[in-house]
Write a structure and sequence with these properties.
Bound molecules: (S)-3-Hydroxyhexanoyl-CoA
Strand content: 5-15%
Structural class: alpha/beta
Largest sheet: 8 strands, mixed
Number of helices: 28
């Protein structure tokens, strides 16, 4: 039973009980209808209250049921709402904590709504690539007015119940106990007739046509590849232009179209992927965590400063250690400046500014960080340097402190072995700018203790990151994959592309930045440094030499005013560089390659399938726990387009057999060895299966 039915005197109470958020899955919907029937047949019952147990009134339709027969099985949410709205006895929604999506639509089908303060009220469907499909687009404008409803539906943003207290959405705000207030309200309205129904209200907005046209134009310009926001406007428009029942039909047809789109499937995949990433099969949710009340960061450079800001933002004091006063002063000044800029944009109050700046202090002495609960090292990416730092940390840190490294490629097990407490060592790979980027790769060493993992996973939520756990390997999940992508990008240059052509092809798909613009932003010297190490350690891996030639020209990217592109002082725009393009053409000639015209499709396939193939190895080796973790790494750390759901989901959408067929084609070209399908990919493709 996923809703309970009780009668208290003259009032029947239906309590949704489907943890964690009372999603309106099939069983819950059936139980509501059963409860309604019982209440309607019981002459002693004069009014009915619908509420939710636990931490929500309702989080809406059960998203897990979408695209499955259960979603369409009777009673559908429409039927449930029709039963409620058609009731001959007054129905009151008693709303608390979370009232979203189908939950709010159910409440709008009730005759009255009473809420406690602090409840999150939203129609967030657009964030899942759909629109409210159970009357929300028709009923919300009737209680909130056209503009407010349209804003809520198009943005999906939650509004606190008390902010809506004066609207027709709520008949009363409960002071004190919600159920007591709801019972008293039910007694009061038990005999009032006719029963008020939202469907009978009118949306009053003179000149609505101009407003709707303005909304269409604005929303079209802002919604990129996503179809749902504009459809939301169309559905809300129907609340003004059509009769109620016709509006409902129109909304339904738009909903059914949207729920089938790849964009919506991708957004739902990302929703569940984000939540799945915080779970590890062998680290139960009740694993005890170590309290983190203070943090130390080693290194006040760009990375160290950004990392420190995350903790200050979450109210946790941070001490930054540097070797020289000058570097420390510079780092602290940069942090202050970053916060000042945020304050100037109106995104930080002066009080919060003072508070955050005050939480970050500096020191030149290891002795002053020993009491921190976690220390994160963000020093130069070199094993020798890491060795010195971790040996020192082992000396000074209190027992039980977590020792974390921000390394992006190095072996965390080796780093752990520099200490006598490898169980306390973990990788925390932040992405630049560390105070902005959502991704945190959490690198689990062979000996990392489970409570250390659970603590860092919890901490990543606290600092509002998407934490994804990776095993130890060269580059972890994200950078190990990007290496294959970069290799293909280099080969494409040798074979006939320019940097712009490659960048534009993937940017058209929705990438925030193509590989060459990204290289110029991050600094081409970083890849050069890593490749030089690889030439010695893994001479079997082939790379295009174009990137080395570029670095030999001193073109490290934006920081040197020149990279794959030319830059003008004070302007981040990338201008095509004739010097670079000549270098590339000459290099092709030196290699004896006849340059050819390469299609955008080939560019996109080679870059993305290179990621996918490496990811399949990573998954099979157990470096990543699940395919969706890899998607989350790419969506939150590498600017992979959200509407595609990440590389693995994208490959699933294309069809793994098609992916393998394209790879076989590329295997016939230069560096064909890069295209041997990973065993997992080959197997899944042969079996007609998917990664996710
Ligand atoms: C809809 O209603 C369509 C209708 O218009 C039309 C239908 C015809 N379904 O986020 P949390 C799970 S579309 C299934 O960590 P929080 C979630 O996966 C729906 N499961 O907690 C997680 O599971 P697990 C419109 C759901 O306290 C657990 O609950 N509604 C749903 O930080 C805890 O989630 C939305 O889009 C769901 N609807 O935040 C609301 N919601 O423990 C989406 C949550 O196994 N949900 N789960 O990992 C949210 O925004 C947040 O989850 C919420 C709670 C604010 C509710």
């Amino acid at each position: 039973m996923s809703a309970e039915y009780q009668v208290n005197g003259q009032i029947a109470v239906i309590t949704l009980n489907n943890p964690p958020v009372n999603g309106l899955g099939h069983a819950t919907r059936s139980a509501i209808v059963d409860g309604m029937k019982q209440a309607l047949h019981n002459d002693a019952v004069k009014a009915i209250i619908i509420t939710g147990a636990g931490k929500a009134f309702s989080g809406g339709a059960d998203i897990k049921e979408f695209n499955s027969p259960k979603a369409m099985a009777e009673p559908t949410l429409h039927t449930v709402i029709n039963v409620v709205e058609g009731s001959s006895k007054p129905v009151i929604a008693a709303i608390h904590s979370v009232c979203m999506g189908g939950g709010l639509e159910l409440a709008l089908g009730c005759n009255y709504r009473i809420a406690s303060a602090g409840a999150q009220i939203a129609l967030p469907e657009v964030k899942l690539g759909i629109l409210p499909g159970a009357g929300g687009t028709q009923r919300l404008p009737r209680v909130l007015g056209l503009e407010m409803a349209l804003n809520m539906i198009v943005s999906g943003t939650a509004v606190a119940s008390e902010k809506l207290a004066k609207t027709a959405l709520f008949n009363e705000m409960a002071e004190g106990d919600l159920m007591q207030a709801a019972m008293a309200f039910a007694e009061k309205v038990a005999d009032v007739r006719p029963l008020p129904r939202v469907r009978d209200m009118k949306v009053d907005y003179p000149n609505y046509e101009a407003y709707l046209q303005f909304s269409r134009n604005t929303v079209r310009a802002m919604s990129g590849p996503f179809p749902a926001p504009l459809k939301c406007v169309e559905a809300v428009a129907a609340a003004v232009t059509k009769k109620f029942d016709d509006g409902i039909k129109f909304e339904r047809s738009l909903f059914l179209d949207l729920v089938q789109t790849n964009e919506s499937k991708a957004l739902r995949h990302a929703f569940f992927g984000e939540r799945a990433a915080s779970k590890l099969p062998d680290v139960p949710e009740d694993t005890p965590v170590r309290p983190i009340k203070s943090v130390a960061v080693i290194g006040a450079g760009t990375m160290g400063g950004g990392i420190a800001m995350n903790f200050a933002n979450a109210g946790i004091p941070v001490k930054i250690l540097e070797m020289k006063q000058e570097a420390l002063d510079k780092g602290l000044a940069t942090i202050r400046k970053n916060y000042e800029n945020t304050m100037k944009k109106g995104k930080l109050t002066p009080e919060k500014f003072e508070q955050r700046v005050g939480l970050i202090t500096g020191t030149l002495s290891y002795d002053e960080i020993g009491q921190a609960d976690i220390v994160i090292e963000a020093v130069f990416e070199d094993m020798g340097v890491k060795e010195q730092v971790f040996k020192k940390l082992d000396e000074v840190m209190k027992p039980g402190a977590i020792l974390a490294s921000n390394t992006s490629t190095l072996d965390v097990d080796k780093i752990a072995a520099f200490t006598k407490r490898p169980q306390d060592v973990i990788g925390t790979h932040f992405f630049s700018p560390a105070n902005v980027m959502k991704l945190l790769e959490i690198v689990r060493g062979k000996l990392t203790a489970k409570d250390v993992l659970a603590t860092v996973m919890g901490l990543s939520k606290k600092i509002k990151k998407t934490g994804v756990v990776s095993g130890v390997c060269d580059g972890f999940i994200g950078n190990r994959m990007i290496e294959q992508y970069s290799r293909q990008a280099g080969f494409l240059l040798e074979e006939g592309c320019t940097p712009e052509q490659v960048d534009k092809a993937v940017e058209k798909l929705g990438f925030a930045m193509g590989p060459f613009r990204m290289g110029d932003l991050a600094g081409n010297d970083i890849g050069w440094y890593i490749r030089k190490r690889r030439y010695v350690e893994k001479p079997q891996i082939t790379y295009s030499k174009t990137a080395d030639l570029l670095c030999e020209m001193g073109r490290f990217g934006q920081k040197t005013g020149a990279g794959w592109y030319d830059y003008k002082p004070g302007d981040r725009k990338a201008y095509s560089s004739s010097v670079v393009n000549e270098m590339i053409v000459k290099h092709s000639a030196d290699l004896g390659i006849e340059r050819r015209k390469i299609s955008d499709q080939e560019i996109v396939e080679r870059l993305i399938y290179a990621l996918v193939n490496e990811a399949a190895h990573i998954l099979e080796e157990g470096i990543a726990t699940r395919a969706s973790d890899i998607d989350m790494v790419y969506l939150t750390g590498y600017g992979f387009p959200l509407h595609t759901g990440g590389p693995m989901f994208y490959a699933d959408t294309v069809g793994l057999q098609n992916v393998v067929m394209s790879m076989q084609k590329y295997a016939k070209g230069r560096h064909g060895d890069a295209w041997t399908p990973a065993p997992l990919l080959a197997r899944l493709a042969a079996e007609g299966k998917t990664f996710n």
